[in-house]
Structure formats: structure tokens, C-alpha cells
Write a sequence for this structure.
């Protein structure tokens, strides 16, 4: 499998043809699959120009929506972007001289892709049709003179490369780009790769990740945030509260044959905060379901567990199980539940209220309010969803919702939402199985479609005030299946 074909972004057909911003496939964890470029993360060659490059990249990060660093591979042909910007002959010569050194690609707001090279590679003279610009110890090559001029104007007349006054998060992002394969993005860059799912990814509107590929594992780590890194206060460090190596220990899976995706979230606003803040969403929830501002705030702060499981039989390929921690009990939410029930019945779903709970003797908890919803099929009625309350000391504390199946009582009782203090999101997924079921389309890159396991952790940064922060540490890995064909 070609290393160049395993791209960080699915830009056109090949990683190196980003003439327009890509349109990404959707999914809650779409951002988590951004670092799927499979390239070797080796130590960058040290030089006296590294400080200047840090400053140059820092300035470019304020103007570009996404910047990615790559390591050269002289055994392969020069990337298409090199050939487009430099011409075939010059691209071939510089690619060979580049060796295993780093080069960069940056995207502007209009989708323009810029090639960035170390100045030491640049020849004394080039043909006049190459639109380049020297920026300290780097050379930026645009597609034409107009885009070069636009870049110069956006950077301003005085290009200052000092990193003085930068926050620790800004300095970290500049550093990862000059030490090895990495990627950094802004909200516009995020929107270009996540499309309609961008509102679910607001906790990662800004980000920078370093990447490493070892055997069949792609690993990444770095910082992400809701607000610009330059606004991070003094004291916040670009490292997790608890040190996490790039390799994450795999947590046991309850059923390796059925589990497709599992996620635990410390509070729902990390995923849905942006949606819940939109007036049109608020008005709809209030008018149609009676979820007022007070209930919306409670939902936003509720811990969430989400699982997607393969269905071996029945009308659906997969089912969803959701658990919400609602310690105030069912009384506050009963009007909402009644409204949802009415709307389902209006759509001809068949309600089975007060269904009998078949308790396993191993389950040392009580349940109440088990409700199943059925729908008629050719071979009879099938359960298509439902909900149930888990009780503690006779009081409902956790609400379980199922789509495509009945609520899994064993999972509700045996798998508490037990994130440690430093974690805010934990996710694992079998993306190869998702692809085989047709739940991931062909637009996803090859590593994602071949990964038997994706793991990701989002945790607090060192120096943050817990439960009140806009920046987090992200780490994860993608474990590939062995390809059956070359």
C-alpha cells in the first residue's frame, strides 16, 4: 500500500491534490479520523534555521486554515502538488535533494494550496512562472502570482517571525510542525473536513496533532480547543494532567463480535453544546417537547454513554444504546417523555408500556418504567426502540434509551459512566467492521476502512481549572487490519 495514498485528508483522489477544500464524510468521530496519514515519524533533522521556521509557521497559522507537515521519501515520485507548483523537472530535482527532510502544505480560506519548502533547498534562480515568496528561512510557492500577492498582503508589510508573547499552546503547535509529521487547523479548516458534522465537533474547533506510524498502528497526540490557542491563559501547559503515552491501552470490549463503537462523555455539551446554543434548536425543543432552558442546561451537563452494536438479525444492521446520568429522577422528565410518546404514537408506532423486566440474577439493581416501541413488518411486529430507568434506593437515577433494539439492562447496570477525573471523552470503534456493514462510505481513507480498532482520549490539560476550560489534550491510535490484498 502506498504511503502517499494513506492521506490525512481525503483531498480529491490523492493527499497531494488539494486544489479545493475537501468535502468530508460524516460521523460523530470524523475529526478523530483526520490524522490518518500513514507516514514515518522520525526525528527531524536539526538545523540553525529551526527557530526561524517556528516563527514563520506561527505567523502562517494565523492566516491559513490548515497546515500539514510531511516527511520526504526520495524513493518515491515527487507528489503531485510539487509537480503542479514547480514543474516536473524542478520538482524531481528538489524532491531528490529533500531526502527525508520535512516539507509543508498549507490551505487558505479560498481553498488555495501552498507548498512550503526549506529555503536551503531553493535554487539561485528559477523560471519566472513559479510564484514563490521568501519568508525568512522558508519559501512559499503559490499556484499563481495573484495568490502569492494575496498571501503577502494578508501577512502584512512587516513579516515578524518572533514567537515572543505566544501562549504555550501556540508554541507547541509551531513546534510539532518542525519536528515531524503533524497537522494544525482552525475552525474553517475543521468545517472543510467535517462538513455538516462540524457543530458536533466544537470542542476541537482549533487543534494541532503530531503523528507517528509504527508497524500497523497510527498514533497521534496534541491539543484541541474551542477557542484560539492564543487566548489560553498563563499556566496552561500543552500536556495532559496525567501523562499519556501515544499508545493507549485497549480497554476490554464487552463483545468483540458485536461492538462497533463505544463512547463515554463527561458532559453532553462537549458534543452538543453548539447545537443546543442555537436559537432555532432551543425553540424547537421548547415548543415540541417541553425542554425549556433549565432542562437544556441539565441535559448539557449530563454524563453520556453511547454504544453502537451490530445486530445479527432483525430489521436493522446496528442498534444504538444511550445512557444519561439524571440523578434528579424521573419526575422532572416525565412530561418530556409523555410528549415524545404522543408523537411516536401519532406516527403509528405501537407502545408497550410497563413491560416486564426480565432480571438477570447477576444484576443487583432495580429498573422501572420499561417502555418498548414496536413497528409492524411482514413477519410480525418488531421492537424498534425503547427506554428504561435504572433505580438506586428506589429512586430513578439513570435513563437508558435504545434505537433499533430494546434497552440492554445488563449494559446499563454493569457499565457505569466512570471517566476518571482527567478524562472528558473516551472513544473506541471498529471502523473496519463499520465499513463492511456499509456504515462508512467509500470517501473514507484506506486506513480508516482497514482499522480494526480506533481509540481516542480527550483529557484536561495541565494547569486548567477542571470543568471550566476551552482547551484539551487529545491522544489516540488507529490499529490497522492486515490487508488481504496489496
Amino acid at each position: 500500500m502506498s504511503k502517499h495514498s494513506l492521506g490525512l485528508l481525503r483531498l480529491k483522489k490523492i493527499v497531494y491534490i488539494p486544489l479545493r477544500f475537501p468535502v468530508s464524510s460524516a460521523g460523530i468521530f470524523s475529526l478523530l479520523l483526520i490524522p490518518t496519514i500513514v507516514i514515518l515519524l522520525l526525528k527531524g533533522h536539526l538545523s540553525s534555521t529551526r527557530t526561524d521556521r517556528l516563527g514563520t509557521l506561527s505567523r502562517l497559522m494565523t492566516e491559513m486554515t490548515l497546515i500539514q507537515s510531511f516527511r520526504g521519501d526520495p524513493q518515491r515520485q515527487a507528489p503531485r502538488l510539487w509537480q503542479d507548483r514547480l514543474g516536473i523537472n524542478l520538482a524531481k530535482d528538489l524532491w531528490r535533494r529533500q531526502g527525508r527532510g520535512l516539507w509543508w502544505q498549507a490551505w487558505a480560506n479560498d481553498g488555495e494550496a501552498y507548498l512550503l519548502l526549506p529555503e536551503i533547498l531553493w535554487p539561485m534562480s528559477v523560471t519566472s512562472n513559479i510564484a514563490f515568496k521568501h519568508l525568512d528561512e522558508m519559501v512559499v510557492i503559490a499556484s499563481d502570482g495573484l495568490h502569492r500577492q494575496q498571501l503577502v498582503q494578508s501577512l502584512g508589510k512587516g513579516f515578524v517571525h518572533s514567537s515572543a508573547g505566544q501562549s504555550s499552546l501556540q508554541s507547541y503547535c509551531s513546534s510539532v510542525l518542525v519536528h515531524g509529521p503533524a497537522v494544525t487547523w482552525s475552525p474553517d479548516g475543521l468545517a472543510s473536513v467535517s462538513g455538516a458534522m462540524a457543530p458536533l465537533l466544537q470542542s476541537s474547533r482549533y487543534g494541532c496533532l503530531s503523528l507517528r506510524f509504527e508497524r500497523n498502528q497510527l498514533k497521534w497526540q496534541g491539543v484541541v480547543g474551542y477557542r484560539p490557542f492564543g487566548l489560553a491563559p498563563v499556566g496552561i501547559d500543552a500536556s495532559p494532567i496525567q501523562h499519556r503515552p501515544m499508545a493507549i491501552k485497549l480497554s476490554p470490549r464487552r463483545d468483540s463480535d458485536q461492538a462497533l463503537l463505544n463512547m463515554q462523555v463527561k458532559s453532553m455539551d462537549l458534543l452538543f453544546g453548539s447545537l443546543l446554543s442555537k436559537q432555532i434548536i432551543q425553540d424547537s425543543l421548547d415548543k415540541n417537547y417541553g425542554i425549556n432552558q433549565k432542562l437544556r442546561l441539565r441535559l448539557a451537563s449530563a454524563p453520556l454513554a453511547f454504544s453502537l452494536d451490530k445486530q445479527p438479525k432483525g430489521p436493522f444492521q446496528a442498534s444504538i444504546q444511550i445512557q444519561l446520568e439524571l440523578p434528579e429522577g424521573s419526575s422532572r422528565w416525565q412530561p418530556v417523555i409523555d410528549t415524545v410518546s404522543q408523537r411516536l404514537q401519532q406516527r403509528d408506532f405501537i407502545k408497550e408500556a410497563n413491560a416486564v423486566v426480565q432480571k438477570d440474577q447477576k444484576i443487583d439493581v432495580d429498573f422501572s418504567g420499561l417502555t418498548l416501541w414496536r413497528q409492524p413488518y411482514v413477519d410480525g411486529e418488531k421492537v424498534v426502540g425503547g427506554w428504561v430507568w435504572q433505580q438506586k434506593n428506589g429512586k430513578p437515577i439513570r435513563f437508558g434509551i435504545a434505537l433499533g433494539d430494546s434497552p440492554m439492562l445488563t449494559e446499563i447496570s454493569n457499565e457505569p459512566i466512570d471517566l476518571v477525573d482527567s478524562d472528558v471523552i473516551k472513544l473506541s470503534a471498529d471502523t473496519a467492521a463499520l465499513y463492511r456493514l456499509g456504515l462508512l462510505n467509500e470517501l473514507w481513507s484506506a486506513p480508516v476502512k482497514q482499522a480494526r480498532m480506533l481509540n481516542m482520549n480527550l483529557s484536561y490539560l495541565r494547569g486548567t481549572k477542571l470543568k471550566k476550560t476551552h482547551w484539551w489534550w487529545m491522544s489516540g491510535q488507529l490499529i490497522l487490519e492486515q490487508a488481504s490484498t496489496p
